[in-house]
Amino acid sequence: MATLSVPHDIVSEILHRLGVNDLLRFKCVSKAWCSLIDDPDFAKLHLSHSLKAGTNLSLVPRGLDGGLLSVELHSLKRVRRLKHPLESYHDKFADLLGSCNGLLALMSRRDEISLWNPSTRKSRMFPAAAVEISRGRLRRGFVVYGFGYDRISDDYKLLQMAQYYFSNDDSIKSEVKVYSSSSNCWRRIQDFNFYIKYKLVHGVLANNALHFVVSRMRRSEPLVAAFDLGTEEFRLLELPDCLGTGFSLNVRALGGYLSLTVSYYLGVHVWDVHDTEIWVMKEYGVRESWTKLISIKQSEFILGFNYVLPLAFSNNADKVLLYVDRNKFMWYDLRSRRVENERDLGGVPRFQGVEMLVVSLVAL
């Protein structure tokens, strides 16, 4: 029987619609298939299809013990523990610095950083940049990170921002460095002279920029700062013009949009949440494009929540998956304005922080 020859572009069109596990097995079919699947351009095509179709998505929560889990997004089932490259016999801790194109940026207690693809199990290891701030009488401080891909330079970048301050006034010293995967080195860039509000929250990637909640003074109203991965410059984004007073902010990426969670408080404590609004910026950088997507009153929906963060849209975009406090997920129906299917991850210990991950073939 004569061998049937299928054109290369047809083979590529078929294969890029498959899952990563299948593709890794199919590398054994022939040298041509192996070469195709290992091609960086094929990895980009496969990633683009997954992102457009909303497939191959999972959640990666970090447990309070520092271990990482993987949870299928739409079913919230198939929970499994991830064995990451920073894990040792004595210590499985990994801080989640960010997620982008199927890669996770992780950090160990020993300041080792790994850019890791859990699907292909390939990683790159390097040390965090040394902080060179002359502290003097500056006793308090912290370091936050942000991870993303710059489409213009075709480069993955990791942002490191160190900030130290006095405990009794508004004086600060900051230091900003950027790691480039293409050059495999750190370099110092301009300083950042706004106060970073949350020392345990890393940058949120949306629209080719990393976003942080900041303020002009430590106790002033919160703002949103964006670090452009292309120009490597900071800018402030304008907030919706109809916000009230006495609120806190959180930023997330939601369906390709920058998302803003506004939590209003009745009292001075974080557990006195009264109302939560979730906004999306439909046209990036345009203040008038902020659109209120969800408004939740604690008395009507969720008893005793401290915070709510949006994670993803459903397949037909009529629901939003919400992450509530430290161990609960729920779907919010945008049509009925009701919460559905509140659930925690049965048998899974409490966790702190969660990232979205798309399964991909991307390599550094």
Automatic annotation (TrEMBL):
Domain F-box residues, every copy: 1-45
CDD domains the record matches: F-box_AtFBW1-like (cd22157)
One of the Pfam families matching this protein, by short name: F-box
Domain of life of the source: Eukaryota
Stored InterPro entries: F-box-assoc_dom_typ1, F-box-assoc_interact_dom, F-box-like_dom_sf, F-box_dom, SCF_F-box_component
PROSITE patterns in alphabetical order: FBOX
UniProt name for this protein: F-box domain-containing protein
Naturally occurring in which organism (per UniProt): Hibiscus sabdariffa (roselle)
Lineage: Eukaryota, Viridiplantae, Streptophyta, Embryophyta, Tracheophyta
